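Handout, section 4.2: multi-component inputs.
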Amino acid sequence: MTTVDSDFFDVQRTDDGARIAVRRMLDINTAPQLAEQVDRLLAAKPREVVVDLAGLDVIDSSGVAVLVKLYKGVRNLGGKLTIVGARDQPLAIFKLLRMDKVFGI
Amino acid sequence: MVAPMAAGAATPSIRLTVPGTLAHRGVAVRVVAEACRLVSGHGQPPPVEVDRGYDLRHPFDAAVVSAFAEIFNNIVIHAYGAGAAGSIELAIATSADDVVIDIHDHGAPFDLAAVPSPELDALPEGGMGIHIARTMLDDVAYAPGPPNRWRLSKALRPPEVTP
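Output:
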């Protein structure tokens, strides 16, 4: 099992995918770091990815873009992405962009 | 053109000038978040001590900060772009029931009216910033410069008042 830690997220590889916990903020300053990990994860062809946003306080369109990229990548591999724990401002953004239903929130 | 000051908004009482870089984005966002709390929290401190700059539990604060952050991104990325970053000047007016944020930058102007709404059903990976700002606020006005002038405004409505 591989784990990648940063101040804003950690990626924990599982047997068939990964669990990603995002904290504090996912915005134009932090999203590029997560995008790098998303590229590496997708290269490993994950089947099951869970993104835990319970610790996330703020997201912007750059952060949303990374999650959409991950969703599309996993879907194109025939896998499944689940987002859990979204609340407050991030949840409001997902609803505004009508992504709450796509992400199964 | 930028509309006249919205009725009910006080004379700008908070002013801040920051370099137009992503490194200074957090400073501006925190100031706007605290200004919003003067409206939504009626000047009262939050019930629990938290990292207040990112305490966006009140829908009013979340909406205004979300919109402001997108406009700040837009200025840094598109107005200043690869060129030398100039300044971003904020003048924030708060009253008991609304906030008006004037933002001036000295970068390249653009045509706000020409920005299309994103095709949300296609799950876009870009082009969502202006849509977020327009949807979250009561009004987003822009006048090309120099300086380019943004005015973001939103009123606190009764359903958003925390019991």
